[in-house]
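Subject: Re: docking follow-up (pyridoxal-5'-phosphate)

Dear J.,

Thanks for your patience while I sorted out the input files. As discussed at Tuesday's group meeting, I've set up the holo structure prediction with pyridoxal-5'-phosphate included as the bound ligand rather than trying to dock it afterwards. The sequence and the ligand SMILES I used are pasted below, so you can double-check that they match what you have on your end before we go further.
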Amino acid sequence: MTDTLYEPAAALAVVQTRIRKACAAAGRPASDVTLTAVSKQQPWDRVAAVLDAGQRIFGENRVQEATERWAQRRQGLELRLIGPLQTNKAKEAVALFDVIETVDRPKLARVLAEEMDKAGKTLRLYIQVNTGEEPQKAGIAPQEADAFLVRCREAYGLTISGLMCIPPVEDAPAPHFALTAKIANRNGLKLLSMGMSADFAVAIQFGATHVRVGSAIFGTR
Ligand SMILES: *Cc1c(COP(=O)(O)O)cnc(C)c1O
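The structure tokens for the complex came back this morning:
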């Protein structure tokens, strides 16, 4: 398939239908699940097509790339940071994003609290859990998640809205989604960002409230 023939708006509609079907199969209302369109590294014409089709929630994994792309056309959109965040980019991230899904260490939590305070802005925050305990991957270890959550609340005064996970590519995703849901449940967290192009239907079965879909909408990066 050549670039000019790829139709992101049609692919978006297919993904939306699959989300609705997965909700129905899981006995959940379609309104339970929100689609984040992951626009990282995608050419602007594809992103524009998806915007024209009405999509307003976008996920990006790099602060600088996201700022360059979105800062001047920010209005009416929800922007979600889904990639690891360095503390020296926290200020810029707070300025641009509505949601940061990748809070995963005390220093980052502290700096985000400071930057939100300075900016007079409250972002929705998720803790990323490294369910596969992969050394190269960001996220707090599952067995440290409860204590980290308490620390975010008590030491830094943060409200944590939910959890996010990225299962290891070589694993069946279901146990990772189940573990993330279990940690969220026992901590009273309502939001779960899990599921990507290959596995969002499974994630919905396990309680995802936000799915992050890139290539199934925009084509391969
Ligand atoms: C890139 C990315 C996605 C989207 O992945 P696809 O397989 O293209 O849907 C979702 N979540 C995170 C954290 C990502 O970095």
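A couple of observations from a first look. The pocket of pyridoxal-5'-phosphate is lined by residues 38, 40, 61, 82-83, 166, 196-198, 212-216 (CB under 6 Å). The chain has a mean pLDDT of 97.

Let me know if you'd like me to rerun anything.

Best regards,
T.
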